[in-house]
Each structure stands twice: as structure tokens, then as C-alpha cells.
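Posted in: Protein Modeling Q&A

I'm a second-year student putting together a small comparison for a lab meeting, and my supervisor asked me to include a predicted structure for Alcohol dehydrogenase, iron-dependent. I've never done this before, so apologies if this is the wrong subforum. The sequence is pasted below exactly as I got it from our records. If anyone can share the C-alpha cell output, I'd also love a short note on what stands out.
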Amino acid sequence: MNRYVLNETSYFGAGCRTELATEVKNKGYKKALLVSDKILASCGVLDKVKDVLNKAKIPYDEFLEIKQNPTIKNCKDGLEALNKSGADFIIAVGGGSVIDTAKAIGIVKNNPSFADIKSLEGVANTTKKSVPVIALPTTCGTAAEVTINYVITVEEENRKIVCVDPKDIPVVAIVDAELMQSMPPKTIASTGMDALTHAIEGYITKGAHVISDMFEVQAIELIAKHLRGAVKDK
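Accepted answer (user: helix_wrangler)
Welcome! Here is the predicted structure, written out as C-alpha cells:
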């Protein structure tokens, strides 16, 4: 038996972040918690998304306290920010760390019995879908914007937990190349190799299928063709 879990909607293309306003309006969302980090805020990437929200007059609060490897404290602080905000959906702007944190915040909000983040490790038996998450990635390796997995660091135990839950997949992924232009060459190289590794793993796994093979082969070909140039151009 093969199972495929896909998000509702994905956009690809330079400038497609403008579709954020359309999706919010169409889904009837009222207020966002904008989840990101201070680096993206300082380099102007976050402003590109905020401009879309401001022009569409979509209210939002911000939560920027996320580490590169998000911790349980980051998740709990984010949940507190969500509760304080009264937001009914989350916009995650960032790499895998930001999007993973948004997933954890959203799933715990609607499943309070999992307030101990460590209880989400593995395949969690949650009962309700996450608070809706719209993800705008700023890197190109983890594909956190379209997956059901997230990773959280347990600092006091010096380990990471991997959480798997179909109920946490972002409802919309907006993959805008203009949000990735600030990536330094080292980050482009590492995230590109991350994507290549995932594609190869997906192709050679015993659980591979003709449908998944189609995506994996295309990913391998595109990365092989363009990654060196993307790093060199920076």
C-alpha cells in the first residue's frame, strides 16, 4: 500500500508571494501570527511579505524569537504569542527552522494535551488539525513547506526529536524565488545538497513508487543542472 499526503495549494515563481493576500481572503482568515527570525527581519526579506499584508490590510502580529535549530522554549514562546495575539492562522517566513516551529505551535494550540512538546516525538496521536499554516520558504533544501515532519531540539537532553503528523502540513506553500535571493553561497550549497540528498533517498527507498520517482528524478536533474551556477552567481 502507498500513501501520499499533499498540501492543499502550492505556488511557484518569482513574485508569487502576492498570492498570499488572495489565499487569506479566500479562506476567510482574520488575523495572522507572522513567524520568522531576526535575521530575515534585519535583511529586508520579511518586509517583502509584510508589504503584501499591509497592502491587503491583513492584520498581523510578529513572533521572531526562533533559533537556527528551534527549541522547545521557542515553540512554547510562540504558542504564548499566538494565544496573546488571538490570530486564527500562522504565516511562516523562513527556512526549515521557522516552518518547523510554526508547525509545532499550530499543532499544540489545537491539541493542548500535547503541551509537553516531547510527547509529539514520532507519530503523534493528535486528534485535531493544526492551526492553519501558510509557509513561505526562504531556503530551498528541507521542503518543510510541503511535508508532515518537523524537528525540535531538546536542549536539556542534547538531542533532537523528529515529529511526524499529517495534521500539521501547511495548507498553502508559496515558493517565491525573490525571497531566496539573500541566501549566501554557503547556504545555497548546503540547502541544495540537502534537497539532492532527499531526492536520492526518495528514489532508492524500498517504498518508492512510479509517482514519487517522477518527482525525485526531476529534482535530481534540476539540482545537477543548476546548483553549481546558483552558488557561483552569488
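A couple of things worth pointing out for your meeting: The longest strand covers residues 89-94. The chain has a mean pLDDT of 95.
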